[in-house]
Structures are given as C-alpha cells and as structure tokens.
C-alpha cells in the first residue's frame, strides 16, 4: 500500500457522497467505505486527512451500524499503519479502537447485514465481525507499542472503576487482547506493566469473563514477577507474585466444578515461586 501522509494531498480521488448530509446512516455508507478502502489500497487516495474525514463522518452518523463500524475501524487502522508520525498513528489507532468497540456492542450476526458490490459487479454480504476481531488484536498491539513512546491511551492507564462498562460483549475479543498483549510483553518488565494495566482493568469491569481473565492473569503476573527476579529486585518480584497468587486463588475457588478453566497455569509452581521470592526478600532486607 502506498504511503498516505497527513496534510498533503498528492492524488485526486472520486468524490464520495458525504455521509454527514444524512440525518441517519444511509444505505450507501457500506459501499462508500468499501470504495474508499479500495482507493487507499490502489493508491488513488493518498490524502490521509480526507480519508480521516470520511471515517469521522461514518462515526457520527453510523455509530449504531455494526458492519459500517467495522469498515470504519479498518479505514482508521489503514491510516495509522501508513502514517510516519507517531502522534498521527496514535490518533488513528485510538479512533479505530472506538469503532471496534461500537462494532462489538451492537453486532448481531443474524440480521441487518448489508451487501457491497465489487468492481466486477459481484455482490457480497458484509459480515465483518470476525475480521474486526482480528483487527482488534492489531490495534491493541499498536497502541501498546505507542505507549512506549509516551503516547499512552487510557486503556493502558490505572483508571478503571468497578462501575465502568466492559468494552467487549463476547469473550472472543477478550481472548484476542490477552493473546496479543501476553505475546507482545513476553518477559519484559516494562511491557508487562503496560499489558497488566489493561488486563487487570478488563478483569475488574468484565464481570462475566472474570474467571477466564483470572486464569490468564495468574500466569502474566508470575511472568512479571520473574522479570524482576532477573534483576534481583525482590521487593517488586514479591509484589507481582502476590498478585499471581491472588488470581490463582480466585480462579481455583470460583471454578470448583469447571477447573478445566484454570488448568492453564501451574498453581503449585506459583506457590513455589512465591516462597523463593519472599525468602530472598527477607534475606536481602536484613
């Protein structure tokens, strides 16, 4: 895909019908955004500001239309991926995240699926829920990387409250975030801190998915603790292994009849790690 640069128009593009001209999301919106995506891929649209404006129009008038929100999220992400400016990336991926959340909360796979027409005339239903779930992983990962450049999205801040709404209705999107962030963070303590902020927050606000998250967070905080063991920072290691124990206990006590949900982490291993770290902390504090 050719680079598109904020603020510079370097190619002409066919004029799409402005969506803001409508009071409600028009039937032409899915086709408009499909044509816009093709124009970006083909290199006929190289002005990111113009593409961004089209996406913003869709956010305003089609925020309740799930397939269109999936398309909008993709347009924002394409702008973010093509940008050479970290701040522009951050804005584009932040908007893409919002469109993905809209898509997930209102999606119904059984109805209201629009169709789009390909250049050859073939029509296809726009059922993009799974594609948008995949896109979520890319957007979450890019926002995590940008936080290392001090461009920190709210989802990576310690600002979650029990009264907040879970951003995802289905567990498949929770699983996507866990998979991407766990892989991205690895055993790097700085990255694990960023990942933990998000996943701890999801555990707090996503009540119906807490068992799954407790299982995954037990392992993540164990890895976090071991990252501090490598530098012999026993105080921070113990802080993280205590969190791992807490999540392991929650998973074990909550699951009872569905312990298969909690077999992903080695409970005994966490206990052994905790004992070793606490003993080293005690020894080194004398």
Span from first to last CA?
60 Å
Helices and strands, in order, run as HHHHEEHHHHHH
What is the rounded Rg? Answer: 22 Å
Mean pLDDT: 86
Secondary structural class: mainly alpha
Counting DSSP H or I runs of 4 or more residues, the number of helices is 10
Helix content: 55-70%
Uncertain residue segments? 1-14
Strand order, main sheet: write it out.
1-2
Number of strands: 2
Main beta sheet, described? 2 strands, antiparallel
Q: Approximately what portion of the residues adopt beta-strand conformation?
A: under 5%
Could you say which overall geometry the principal axes of the C-alpha atoms support?
Answer: elongated
SSE diagram, text form:
Layout (H helix, E strand, L loop, with lengths): L28 H14 L5 H14 L4 H17 L3 H21 L8 E3 L5 E3 L3 H19 L23 H15 L3 H17 L4 H20 L4 H22 L11 H18 L2
Antiparallel strand pairs: 1-2
Overall description:
By secondary structure, the protein is mostly helical. 62% of the residues lie in helices and 2% in strands. Strands 1-2 form a two-stranded antiparallel ribbon. A hairpin with a 5-residue loop joins β1 (115-117) and β2. α3 packs parallel to α5. The radius of gyration is 22 Å and the shape is elongated.
Annotation keywords:
286 residues, elongated, disordered N terminus, 2% strand, mainly alpha
Please summarize what this structure is.
With 286 residues, the chain is mainly α. It has ten helices and two strands; from the N terminus they run H-H-H-H-E-E-H-H-H-H-H-H. The N and C termini lie far apart (60 Å).
